[in-house]
Specification:
Strand content of chain A: over 45%
Oligomer: heterodimer
Number of helices of chain B: 0
Strand content of chain B: over 45%
Largest interface: A-B, 24 and 25 residues
Structural class of chain A: mainly beta
Helix content of chain A: under 10%
Order of helices and strands of chain B: EEEEEEEEEEE
Shape of chain A: globular
Shape of chain B: globular
Chain lengths: 113, 111
C-alpha cells in the first residue's frame, strides 16, 4: 500500500523568500513521485515528477524537488517565492504500474508582499 | 495540442436527481481517470478507464458509474444525488500510467 503525508496544511512565506513544502511517502515498491499545483477554480497542473534516475528533479516555474529514499521524502523547494506562486500544492505517489495516483491532503501556499 | 476539457464547468442539481459529467481527453490519450475533490476528503480516486474498459475503481458507492467511448471520451454518472456529492469532479487523461493531465473540473452543487 502507498500513502503520502504533507506536513503543514498552510505555509506562508514572504515574497523573495525560500519556499519549502514537505512531503513524506510510504511505498512497498520503488515509488513514482509527483508534485501538482492547483490554482483557484482550476484543475491540477504537473509541476515535476520523479520516476527513476537523478534524484534532484527540476520542474516548471523554478521549482525543484529531491527524492531521498533514506528519509522517504520528496520535499518541494523554490529559492525565491513570487506572488504568482500562491496556490494549493499536492504531493502524490504511484507505484508506476497502477493507474491511480495517491494524493496528499495538500498544502496551501500564501505569499506575503 | 488541446488540453483535457470537461463539461459542464458548473452544475446545480437537487437531491435525488442524477447527473452526467463529460470529459474529453488529450488527443492520443487512451486512459481517463476521475477524481472527486472536497474540502473535507481531499482528492479521491473514483475510477479509471482504458480502451473502453474500467481498469481501476476507487472506494465509492455504486451510485457512481462511468464509461468510455471508442474515441476515448468519458462520461461519469451519479444517480440519486446526495448533499455530500457536492464537489469538484476532476478528469485526467494520460498515455502513461504515472503521468496524468487534468482538466479544469466540473463544480457540482447539490441542494
Amino acid at each position: 500500500a502507498q500513502s503520502v503525508t504533507q506536513l503543514g496544511s498552510h505555509v506562508s512565506v514572504s515574497e523573495g523568500a525560500l519556499v519549502l513544502l514537505r512531503c513524506n511517502y510510504s511505498s512497498s515498491v520503488p515509488p513514482y513521485l509527483f508534485w501538482y499545483v492547483q490554482y483557484p477554480n482550476q484543475g491540477l497542473q504537473l509541476l515535476l515528477k520523479y520516476t527513476t534516475g537523478a534524484t534532484l528533479v527540476k520542474g516548471i516555474n523554478g521549482f525543484e524537488a529531491e527524492f531521498k529514499k533514506s528519509e522517504t521524502s520528496f520535499h518541494l523547494t523554490k529559492p525565491s517565492a513570487h506572488m504568482s506562486d500562491a496556490a494549493e500544492y499536492f504531493c502524490a505517489v504511484s507505484d508506476g504500474s497502477a493507474s491511480k495516483i495517491i494524493f496528499g491532503s495538500g498544502t496551501r501556499l500564501s505569499i506575503r508582499p | 495540442k488541446a488540453g483535457v476539457t470537461q463539461t459542464p464547468r458548473y452544475l446545480i442539481k437537487t437531491r435525488g436527481q442524477q447527473v452526467t459529467l463529460s470529459c474529453s481527453p488529450i488527443s492520443g490519450h487512451r486512459s481517463v481517470s476521475w477524481y472527486q475533490q472536497t474540502p473535507g476528503q481531499g482528492l479521491q480516486f473514483l475510477f479509471e478507464y482504458f480502451s473502453e474498459t474500467q481498469r481501476n475503481k476507487g472506494n465509492f458507492p455504486g451510485r457512481f458509474s462511468g464509461r468510455q467511448f471508442s474515441n476515448s471520451r468519458s462520461e461519469m454518472n451519479v444517480s440519486t444525488l446526495e448533499l455530500g456529492d457536492s464537489a469538484l469532479y476532476l478528469c485526467a487523461s494520460s498515455t502513461e500510467a504515472y503521468e496524468q493531465y487534468f482538466g479544469p473540473g466540473t463544480r457540482l452543487t447539490v441542494t
